Structures are given as C-alpha cells and as structure tokens.
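User: Hi! I'm working on a homework problem where we have to compare a predicted structure to a textbook description. Could you give me the structure for the chain below?
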Amino acid sequence: MTDTILPQTLVDLARKVVETNRAAGRTVAVAESCTGGLVAAALTEIPGSSEVLIVGFVTYSNDAKMSELKVSGDVLETFGAVSVATAWSMAQGALEESGADVAVAVTGIAGPDGGTDKKPVGHVVFARAERDADPDIVVADTREFGDLGRGGVRLQAALCALELLVPGKPPSPDAESL
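Assistant: Happy to help. Predicted structure tokens:
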C-alpha cells in the first residue's frame, strides 16, 4: 500500500516521468491551468523528484498566464485561454522562466460549466517545449475527453500531461559495444 491520496495510475506515471527524466539528465517544469497543480502534485509524490522537477506554475487566470508565463494578451484575446496558441505560449514561458530542459502545459475546460459548442466540457489542450528545440515546430495536442465530471477531466488531463514528459528511452551506456 502506498502513502498517497492520488490515484495509483497517476502516481505510477509520475514515477516513470521522474525516473526516465532523471536517467536522461533532464529537468522539467509544468504550467497548469485546468489541472490546478495536479501534475506537479503527482510528480512530488515521488521521492527524489526534486532532482527533476524545477517548478510548477498554476496559472488559472489569464492575468496569471500573462504575468507568470509571459503569455501575450493578444494570444489570449485572439485564440482564448483554451487553445493551442495559449498552451504553446504557456509551455514556452515555463521553459524560459524556469530554465528547465522540458516544459509541459495544460489548459482546458474541466466543467461542469464553461463549455461552448466549439470548446465543450472535456476539451483540453496540451503543449510541450524543449530547450534547444526548433521553435517553429509546435508540439501540441487537443483532446476531447467528454464530460467525465470535473475530477475525471482533470485526472485524464494530468495523465496526458505526464505522458508528454516521458522522454524517449536513452541509449544504454554500452550500446555502442553491442
């Protein structure tokens, strides 16, 4: 039995993120809106996560997105808080503000209110930014989880955000000698 209040699937994936990023020598930052810190909470459930996680930004309001992550007011006004443009800007801002090697951002509509025909409850957008990556290549995804209830949407969003933080398997130290 583990000592956690979080769902085991979330903790297990967070453990994988911490272990694989530690092995790859990478540090991470997270920028969260609809998950409200759930991704960072999952990562900090793992002993030794301080070697990997630099910072978690919870930027729930547009003002916080602008002040903490330097998301442009024009981006927010033009595309909305729940958009690829905003998620990408959040990820880039988290990367720049933290000095991490990789950052992931998540923004969405957890419900029960706030959905529209174009962006219904369960509509969540993710982005990942990596240090020294080509800034013209946007790594982002939109998921439609449906109305799983507020907790269900937030859990699924946190799981997807964590998946984006899992690096490719690093080569083993003696791979060249095989």
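For your comparison, note the following. Residues 8-24 form the longest helix (17 residues). The first strand starts at residue 28 and ends at 32. Good luck with the assignment!
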